[in-house]
Amino acid sequence: MNTYSSANDLYDPMTGLKDRTAFILDTERYAAKGIHAHIILVQLSQLLRINRKYGVLVCDKLIIHIAQYLQSLDANYEAYRIANSRLVLMGPECSQETADAITMRIKDRFDHAWSISHNEYVYGISTKAYFIHLFLGLEDTESDLMDKMNHAISVFPQRSTDGIIFYDKEIDSDMQHLKYVMEELRYAIDHETFQMYYQPIYDCHEKKFTTAESLIRLSGRDGTFISPGEFIPMAEDTGLIDSISWIVLGKVCQFLGTHPDLPLKTISVNMTGQQILDPNFIHRIDESLRDHHISGSRLRIEITERTIIEDFSEVKRVMEHLASKGIHFYLDDFGTGYSNLSRMFSLPFEVIKFDQSLMKTINDTNKALKTIGLLADIMHENEYSIVAEGIETENQAKTVNQCRLDRIQGYYFSKPLPEDELLRFLEEKNISEI
């Protein structure tokens, strides 16, 4: 048993182990003495399955059994239950070899079933866990420790090779970067410092650029570029994506209002299902158009099929109302998953965007080419226009034209451009043929 326990021991009522408060107090005592305590997190990962299969009482007994095992594992370590499925061991500073050995010992035990007695029956229950260990930083606060544990769990599938992660400098650097991105993301939302870029879309019939898609970019306050592939998923996971989309709408409407003679018929913005289902959605769209003195006919809204299935009847009502005002919709990312064509055909889409993952196959085989051509025929028969996304080569562009797709978007013509570069691009380009 360690000798740095808190004077006011606090215990988990089910397992009898010390609880989260006691754990934090004990880490503070280690740190005050300059000891880099060794901490092992055992994150149980299958409790819900065990609850459903064996019942709550059996699952509780399993947790108690595991807790007792950890408590008796090594006299130098104290066991804690810091959350429902999180158990922790903490002991004095040791070598990396010793730390690895005791963590592997626990992991090896989990490779075997646990015998749990209940109602005169013995169950052999197998369960999995994440095993994460680290040495206590002397400046680590409670928040620091929880952040480290949470981050290690989030990267466990990518980082673990033997079912164990040691929280090292590389993982910590990764976590600090994610913290940086989140801080800059929140700052950009609060101060609306995102930059707007626009990717022009070529019209194969009119032989010129007639539309563009708005895309958001983020740079940190130190000037570091943060990829959309990094901050957009983070915004989606944390519920911040709607705030960003409203900012985009405002900036696009402002751009259109500032440049009434812009030689583009429309600019599209991406919207989420949660926004469309917001009772104030139509009002906010109307407000943005009115504030910047632009017609709804200049705005297009891109949504994915996932948006449609969230509440089909309400999405349909909103789309039909806005379409009556000239604000039409694009179905984005077509070809990335199962598509319910009957639902799609009943909605007022103007354009179907063939995803770049689909378009990349266009020159692979005759079968792929034929399939895309047949899809195009179906869309045209239902009076949709088609945008081919992700077109990067002249050969792809020519094939798209041969398949009678209507518009082309991709690096072959232009990368996404900031506002001033878009204006110059539209002035200079006069493409008559592909």
List keywords for this structure.
434 residues, alpha/beta, Alpha-Beta Plaits, TIM Barrel, five-stranded mixed β-sheet, 45% helix, elongated, disordered N terminus
Model description:
- The protein is α/β, with parallel strands linked by helices and 434 residues long.
- The protein folds into two domains: 20-167, Reverse transcriptase/Diguanylate cyclase domain (Alpha-Beta Plaits, 2-Layer Sandwich); 179-428, EAL domain (TIM Barrel, Alpha-Beta Barrel), CATH 3.20.20.450.
- The chain is built from 18 helices and 17 strands.
- It has helices at 20-32, 47-54, 56-71, 96-109, 142-154, 156-159, 169-191, 228-237, 241-258, 273-276, 281-291, 305-310, 312-323, 341-345, 356-359, 366-381, 394-402, 419-428; strands spanning 38-44, 78-83, 86-91, 114-118, 121-125, 129-135, 164-166, 195-203, 208-219, 225-226, 266-270, 299-304, 328-334, 349-354, 385-388, 407-408, 417-418.
- Helix 2 (47-54) crosses helix 3 and helix 9 runs parallel beside helix 11 (281-291).
- It starts with 19 loop residues before the first helix and ends in a 6-residue tail after the last helix.
- Residues 3-8 have low confidence and may be disordered.
